[in-house]
Amino acid sequence: MRRITLGATLFILGTVLAGCQDNQDQPANLSTEAKSKRQIAQELSTNYQDFETQLTKQISEDYTSVPLNELVANSDDNDLQAMVFSADQAAVTKRGINGETSSLLNVSLADPEMIAKLKDGEKPLFTYQPDSVEAGDTVEMFDINGETVLGSADVLPEQPVFIVSVDEKEAMRAGLSVMRTAFEENNMPGFANQLKIADTSTDDKEFISTTVLKKISLQDDHEPWISGKAEIYALVSGVSPSRDEPKLDVVEMPYLDYQGKDYYPNQIMIYWDRYRWGAANIVLMEHDSNTNYRDLAKVIVKAASQIIASQVDGGVLSAAIVGELVNEIIKVIPDDAFTNNDDLVDYYYTIEQNQVLTDQPGASGNAMATFEPKDIQRTK
Predict the structure, then answer these.
(1) What are phi and psi of 84, to 5 degrees?
(2) pLDDT digits (tens, 9 = 90+) for 250-307
(3) What is the predicted pLDDT for the residue at 203?
């Protein structure tokens, strides 16, 4: 990758911050990050001939995105390189995940079914990930002449569309790492670490008792097409077997990209030695950019601890508290959870240790999942 001089970086950063303000057609109230992504999308559209070969070669059904820094690395446009570099660093810094990743911005195809048209030579549109998007919103796109084309967040265009956006899977991975750290700070060691401990412990148990997710689909993934693939994760909650305190896990579900499609992950969701009474809940969430995961983890821990403490003080702590934990977690999800913060997708109350649930709808009817118990033999 070519080196970018400090002078060029500072000049282009100023352009990113102020340049779009000179454009009378710019949508109102864009954040600095959205302005940067908008300008990059317009630059890519007008210079598509420089990137056409690279994009058509690298984009596939399995890999529908290309990191922006890689895309522009061999470009002769030093200004565009500097613009991407500055915007990328700002995106990482904004999310507080500098120690987790060095690059977040990419350009992705809106839908894998657009690949055939793209490889047949149909010219694409370019757009950018907005600060927030809701049903009925207008989407601003650019053709290869840089001219504005307006569309709808509700209707995926038939013409291929590239989106300049944050790599939300990478952002979620970093955010969930922060959440796990917050749980560990509250005496809740991570799910993966507990499995390792259980597998190498010296007790007499021959098997590790778990529940696996065999199949899942979503009717609505709470993700408009312009935001790209959905990024789903699960919060598993219950009561610690050794203390009158909540036990919380966060489980990544990186395969669950699109609504209306069945997935068969065979993924461990619950490790039963972690939960009293052989009962736990699962809350499905969809990641978006604006969530502060450390703050979210703190309010979840606080809410769950308070509801358990209230029953301990009343001398009535029982298995019924497991289901009530879901209600407390839902209450503390931010009020703007249905804009562009993490969305509540669905939730399952009180899954039991040896229970088989086949094509079980979630409480809100959005998810359909099959859960089965699975005993894993220890390796020692």
Answers:
(1) -65, -45
(2) 999 989 888 889 999 999 999 999 899 999 999 999 886 666 777 788 888 888 888 8
(3) 57
d(CA 59, CA 70): 13
CB-CB contact of 175 with 285 (8 Å): no
Among 136, 112, 44, smallest CA distance to 84 is for 44
> DSSP secondary structure string, 148-159?
EEEEETTS--SS
| Cβ pair 118, 81 in contact under 8 A | no
Q: Output the pTM of the full model.
A: 0.69
Residue the block writes with tokens 């009530």: 324
**Residue 339's pLDDT band (cuts 50, 70, 90):** very low
Q: Write the Ramachandran bin of 266: left for phi over 0, alpha for psi from -120 to 50, otherwise beta.
A: left
User: 197, 262 in Cβ contact below 8 A?
Assistant: no
pLDDT digits (tens, 9 = 90+) for 45-91: 999 999 999 999 999 988 899 999 999 998 999 999 999 999 999 98
Nearest to 164 by CA among 255, 76, 87: 87
Angle between helix 6-18 and helix 78-94 axes, rounded to 10 deg: 70
178 three-state secondary structure: helix
Q: Are 240 and 304 in contact (CB under 8 A)?
A: no
Residue with tokens 């265009």: 157
CA distance linking residue 334 with residue 341, whole number of Å: 8
pLDDT at 135 over 90: no
Q: Nearest 10 degrees: CA dihedral of 147, 151, 121, 2?
A: 60
- Quote the CA–CA distance of 162 and 41 in Å, as a whole number: 8
Give the span between the Cα atoms of 52 and 47, in whole angstroms: 9
245 contacts 187 by C-beta, under 8 angstroms: yes
Find out whether 281 and 325 touch, Cβ atoms under 8 Å. Answer: yes
- Residue 6: partners with Cβ closer than 8 Å, 6 or more residues away: none
* 3-state SS, residue 337: coil
* Nearest alpha-carbon partner for 188 in 270, 249, 273, 252: 249
